[in-house]
Amino acid sequence: MRLRAPVVAGVAGGVGTTTLAVALHGLDAGRTVGPLVDVLVCRCSADSLHRAARFADRFGGPGPRPVLAVTAEGSVPAKGPLQAAMQTLQSRFSGLVVLPRIAHWRELADPLAEVSGMLAQPPESLPRPLRGYTTALRELAQLVAATGRLHRDAPVARPSHPTSVPAPPRRASPVRRADAVQPVRGLRIIAPGPAWAGQR
What we know:
Layout: E1 7-10, H1 17-24, E2 27-28, E3 39-43, H2 46-56, E4 67-71, H3 81-90, E5 96-99, H4 111-115, H5 128-147, E6 170-171
Parallel strand pairs: 1-2, 1-3, 3-4, 4-5
Antiparallel strand pairs: 2-6
């Protein structure tokens, strides 16, 4: 049985939602947080973790909760109050994974081209700065698959008022034609396409 692509949403803009959705070959829901979300993304900051805690209450229904992905602001792991906040949050989600900060993505014109092939790469074949992120990404993918959420269809919203129809999640990919994507030096695309194809 093929697993559906995971739905990824963020607690706010700029937390790394699109980057993670592209890396997982998932669906980018932006800041639309609802019952269909499989991965909730926040930053490792007091405000962002607090937002994630507030959103956790939305997942109190039947079935497994989403996985929380925390984009690191600095060193991993975080210390002090931030570490305590993450430990508290972990029990309110199906799992929590901290994704290391990749400084050189700020310097690339199109970091998503590099991001899109990471999950298909053995971590040891990647440039050193990307290995920690890829290892965390694999852990996150395993946690999401283990929840069982991807075995069922994403819920379909049935709004009571026609003007309240939420925008559907969009396929996460660089905004350009697929055949225009050029391979990034140092990366080998071993298994292009959704990471979830063929999984059970």
